[in-house]
Design brief:
The protein has 457 residues and is α+β, with helices and mostly antiparallel strands. The chain has 22 helices and six strands. The chain has two domains: 299 residues, 2-methylcitrate dehydratase PrpD, CATH 1.10.4100.10; 125 residues, 2-methylcitrate dehydratase PrpD (60s Ribosomal Protein L30, Chain: A).
Length: 457
């Protein structure tokens, strides 16, 4: 057990971060870190032609050595971290962590890769940074579960900057004190509210990029001698008091077994391009359709849900049954169930603005409602449970005990690579371009150096 009173939490995290050897990670942890780089890279390519990424790239004024993945230009590390993080998270197809939830890959990977290109770091340093950042980000999300959402903050956004600062600080070789000072500074750069839920606007998409950029800046500031408070996490005016005041922080989730047990190994890779907690319900809907049930046969679908998911994915119900655009559809369980039932998928093509206006999808979404299940294990476990009442009087129930892609039902290596290649094709890349980028990441994961710009052009 770690003693929070005798030594600041950030300094204890710094000791862990500084001690990690990126070339000697446990095999399972190294595999997850490599897959996160693959997944993030594919998502960046998939989103490269979108309006929001175009706006993000157009806002960049810098030149430098770092790569905006999928684009024919270079920029400084801060801007590359922002562009790549925004693109990676923008379609909500990136990894997630049950228990948080947070999306670590879209924050940590862009931050570390930007630092690597800026400083020409080798693969061992990159693997160290990714492993440290993902581990810290996931563990931090467990300290005050659900409290940040309750306070109207997006945990990926606010936790991400602090975790990314530790990741970059570790990758560039800062000692424990330097990592702690970086985290202390990142606490003052943390931001990200969830008002995007009101109208499907774009701000959530930039949260991962902004966090990656903030963490990178905080780490470089610490390297240059800038001081942030060591008590940033547990202090009276600290991070968790600011962003999750409704719960007393339990730092055992962050500190216990840190360095000997890797929660990174349990990161989930999404099979669908929508909100994490909707995904087991999508699988239930697909299974229902495969039994031969038709949309016109359905009178109603009632979902048993965790209370903590309601304000983001279910309310106000009339809005969720009629999402105004494709992005809002990603955070509407009724729409996700409807499109999963009708299309047998909830991929990138199911969340265009045009698809969300389809009368058949809207008609089925209007039949979907919810009840709160007090026994639902959210946020520790993401489950699905639907009851479909049919016109002939039958009631058919479908359940998912776990999220597909998570620790209890993981995607295979072949499925992760297939997702990467499909995302690259969606973004307009030739297969040989995707293969070059895939090989570049494999080289990096083995300890080599790489030019991501050259790999994708």
């Amino acid at each position: 057990m770690h003693d929070v009173q005798s030594k600041p939490v950030a300094l204890q995290v710094g000791e862990f971060a500084a001690a990690v050897d990126g070339g000697l990670l446990p095999a399972a942890t190294a595999e997850v870190c490599r897959n996160l780089m693959i997944d993030v890279a594919g998502l960046c390519v998939a989103a490269r032609g979108t309006d929001y990424v175009a706006a993000t790239v157009a806002s960049v004024l810098s030149e430098g050595p770092a790569t905006a993945i999928g684009h024919g230009r270079r920029m400084n590390a801060y801007d590359a971290a922002f562009v790549n993080g925004t693109a990676a998270h923008g379609e909500d197809f990136d990894d997630t962590f049950e228990g948080g939830p947070v999306h670590a890959g879209a924050v940590i990977v862009p931050a570390v890769l930007a630092a690597a290109e800026q400083r020409w770091l080798d693969g061992a340093a990159v693997m160290k940074g990714v492993a440290v950042g993902v581990e810290i980000m996931c563990r931090m999300s467990l300290v005050t579960p659900q409290a940040m959402h309750k306070a109207c903050f997006h945990p990926t956004a606010v936790i991400g900057g602090v975790a990314a600062s530790a990741a970059v600080a570790a990758s560039i070789g800062l000692k424990a004190d330097g990592v702690a000072r970086a985290m202390g500074t990142a606490g003052s750069l943390a931001s990200g509210i969830i008002e995007y839920l009101a109208d499907g606007s774009w701000t959530k998409r930039m949260h991962a990029g902004a966090a990656a950029q903030a963490g990178l800046r905080a780490a470089f500031l610490a390297e240059a001698g800038f001081f942030g408070p060591h008590t940033v996490l547990e202090g009276r005016h600290g991070f968790f008091q600011a962003f999750g005041p409704s719960r007393k922080p339990d730092f055992s989730h962050l500190l216990d077994d840190l360095g000997s047990r890797w929660v990174t190994d349990t990161v989930a890779f999404k099979p669908y391009a929508c909100g994490t907690m909707t995904q087991p319900y999508v699988d239930c809907a697909i299974e229902l359709a495969r039994e031969g049930v038709k949309a016109d046969d359905i009178v109603s679908i009632v979902c048993d849900v965790g209370e903590g998911t309601v304000h983001r994915l279910w309310e106000p119900l009339p809005l969720k049954q009629n999402p105004p655009n494709g992005y809002a559809g990603k955070f509407s369980t009724p729409y996700c169930i409807a499109v999963g039932f009708l299309d047998g998928d909830a991929g990138l093509g199911q969340f265009t603005d045009e698809r969300t206006q389809d009368p058949a999808a809207r008609a089925l979404a209007a039949k979907v409602s919810f009840v709160i299940d007090p026994a639902n294990p959210y946020p520790n476990q993401f489950t699905g449970h639907i009851r479909a009442t049919l016109k002939d009087g039958r009631v058919i129930e479908k359940r998912r005990a776990n999220m597909r892609g998570g620790a209890h039902d993981p995607l295979s290596q072949a499925e992760i690579l297939a997702k990467f290649r499909a995302n690259a094709r969606f973004g307009g890349w030739r297969d040989e371009q995707a293969t070059a980028l895939e090989n570049a990441i494999a080289t990096l994961a083995r300890g080599g150096k790489v030019d991501f710009f050259a790999a994708g052009t």
